[in-house]
Amino acid sequence: MTATTGLRWLVVPGPGTPEPSRDLVGGKAWSLWRMRSLGLRVPPAFVVTTEACAAYFAREELPEGLTDELVTGIRLLETELGRTFGGHRRPLLVSVRSGAAVSMPGMMDTILDLGCNDRVEAALAAETGDPEFAAEVHRRFTGFYGRLVLGSTEELEDLPDTAAVRAAIADDVGEPVPADPWEQLHAAVAAVFRSSRSRRAVAYRKHYGIPEDLGTAVTIQAMVFGNLDDDSGTGVLFTRSPVDGTREPYGEYLPRGQGEDVVSGRVTPKPLAQLAESWPNVHSELIAAAECLDREGRDAQDIEFTVQNGELFLLQSRPAKRTARAAVRIAVELVDEGVLDADEAVTRVTAEQVRTLLRPEIAAGASEGAEELAKGVGASPGVATGVVVDTPEAAQANPGCVLVRKSTSPDDVHGMIAASAVVTEQGGATSHAAVVSRALDTPCVVGCGAGAVEALVGRTVTVDATRGVVYAGELPTEAVDESEDEDLRRLTQWAQRATTLTVAATAPEPVFDADSAAAGDIPELPPGTKTVRGAVFCTPEGVRVALEAGVETIVTPHRLPVLLAAIAHQRSTT
Fold first, then answer.
1. DSSP state, 58?
2. PANTHER family, per this entry (predicted)?
């Protein structure tokens, strides 16, 4: 993709175009360019840049010239596909998708099936011979637009038809969904820009230290329909398990569905084996594409795909959000595969991830005879105990609680950040709850079945998300020994070679012992101090202070987190 002559706010595709700037087009559009350059099948698209987003917030309106450039972009899609935006024959529908330079899965808005109205519905029905499909596309679009652009808070998903959705939106916000596709497009682009400053996006950036003014690009892409017929569907594929890092495809497929159905968690999809059974050739093509993207990306990939009438289309590929366990396994395995060297592998795992991995586990035998209150799929492993709440606001007011929801959405993220564990009634291993919990390294169990919220709320529970079980009460736990884990042992060896700091379980005297000093801030080190111990020196800030004071050895029972913090600090200062 590259900017077409005369365009200020758009980047458009073209054969053999150079690699675009990720900062300009966002990670989603950059991945489309990469997949297309590798010869993979991608629906055509163009991108409204992050510069347009910044200009929008400067004036609180679409920047001058953007509406004319959107016409240019749509005309390019029409020419490539032989379709017409808003047309009465072979209509073109598009998705309007967010895409920041730094991946923020599920934090900003996506609007599907845009360009639909009564005339387009009739044209789709005539083209496909399926009036029910056309009506469903129209109903879905109306709900997307009403919720994400007009701000309706009504429950629209289960309403029977477009007329009912329209009426609910009009009653709620006092404004109709426009019939003009161009009006729809302009408002949708502005709404996606605004979603980059939504409460959930702000909370996510704050949690991960992402710049607040990052903004978003907007990818406008021709629709492909996973809900077209029995030979269509949608899914998500991880090239390696995001739960434990196993080198095998991991994902789910939903026949006759759109991507939003899988991500939302409202519908529990099928294992990828369903696709292999129904369409073995499509499944083989998907696996080959996944291997290519894993190899070219030099990392585990999270791939969104749609099958339309038996034909595979790739919609996105990005480095997969993963648990701490998976991060460690993948880093070590990439070294064994010759993809990374040891020095790069230790930069793929953070000190915080290792601390998470070393969190206590349920003590041996403690779960025997314990009361099981719920059981589902362990989507993000770990153990946590807390009182169950059922709203994100309650979770934020009670940090360390367990948040239980029917399914989660981006609006729940502030509560998910505060909770010690997340449990849902619905959804699978690639649902919103699962993906965000893995990114947060929060224990998560999904798909526990109807009634779990009511059964659990107000109770103290222990969530064993490794096994996918919620137990009554607080079960005893025991510490994890990093020396007994082969992957951690190898990472520790590599990390020790990559830093001048020595981290040891014991050391000869003299040792400056921060734990015996006054509690509070990092104590001032006496001149010439070479060896220190204490919890404060196991934090990133403590490691920084120690290194800058000339400390040569930190004594701690858990070596790897301190070594990784030292490597991160040294990299930041070079």
1. H
2. PHOSPHOENOLPYRUVATE DIKINASE-RELATED (PTHR22931), PYRUVATE, PHOSPHATE DIKINASE 1, CHLOROPLASTIC (PTHR22931:SF9)
pLDDT confidence of residue 65: 95
Give CA–CA dist 475/362, Å, rounded.
7
DSSP string, 477-516: EE---GGG-HHHHHHHHHHHHH-S-EEES--PSP-EEGGG
pTM summary value: 0.82
The angle at the Cα of 411, spanning 222 to 104, to the nearest 5 degrees, equals 55
> Which domains does the chain carry?
1-223 (3.30.1490.20), 224-322 (3.30.470.20), 361-478 (3.50.30.10), 483-572 (no CATH)
Q: Residue 572 is encoded by which pair of tokens?
A: 């930041």
Q: Are 24 and 11 in contact (CB under 8 A)?
A: yes
Type of residue numbered 34: R
Which strands form 94-99's sheet, in the order they lie side by side?
A: 10-11, 45-48, 217-222, 94-99, 110-114
How does pLDDT run across 470-488, given as a tens digit for each residue?
A: 999 999 988 777 778 899 9
Q: Per residue in 8-18, pLDDT tens?
A: 899 886 666 77
Q: What is the pLDDT of residues 424-441, one digit of tens each?
A: 999 888 888 998 898 888
Amino acid at 332: V
Each residue of 273-332: pLDDT tens digit? 889 998 999 999 999 999 999 999 999 999 999 999 999 999 999 999 898 899 999 999
Q: How far apart are CA 47 and CA 188, in angstroms?
A: 14
In this structure, the chain runs to a length of 574
How high is the mean pLDDT of the chain? 91
Structure tokens at 528: 């010439």
